[in-house]
Design goal:
Blueprint lengths: L2 H15 L6 H11 L6 H12 L1 H11 L10 H16 L5 H15 L2 H22 L1
């Protein structure tokens, strides 16, 4: 399974979690049962990692979404942003520009054009702020 396919499967799980009080393990079990998309250990691991850091990542989303309250951000965008920000913060194997590019691709596939601009803008702002901090 390619990393982009893993990311898309994790998007489905992360999106579902936004509407459910089920645990990550329950959502994973349901995904295996439903068999609507490919699941494997990489998908499970990334989904659990993203889910574990949700509160921290959501704070970043809220901070960088200057003109929108968190509750007003479309759920598709939230799911994509959670994955991208997790990768930017915690996955050394994924360069920031790749995480942003893949987030834009997912958003183009599952959301509206204005959401693509929002996701790209938020991730870009976060990336630039990290660069300033590191300098």
């Amino acid at each position: 399974m390619k990393r982009s396919e893993v990311r898309e499967a994790v998007f489905f799980l992360t999106f579902e979690k936004l509407f459910s009080d089920n645990t990550a393990d329950d959502i994973i079990d349901d995904a295996y049962e439903a068999d609507n998309f490919e699941m494997n250990e990489d998908v499970e691991k990334l989904f659990k990692n993203v889910d574990e850091k949700t509160d921290e990542v959501d704070e970043i989303i809220a901070k960088y979404s200057e003109n929108r309250q968190f509750s007003r951000i479309p759920k598709v965008s939230v799911a994509v942003l959670r994955i991208a920000l997790y990768e930017m913060l915690y996955d050394d194997k994924v360069p920031d520009n790749v995480a942003i590019s893949e987030a834009v691709i997912l958003t183009k596939k599952f959301a509206y054009e204005q959401d693509v601009q929002f996701v790209n803008g938020l991730l870009g702002a976060f990336f630039r702020s990290r660069e300033k901090t590191e300098q």
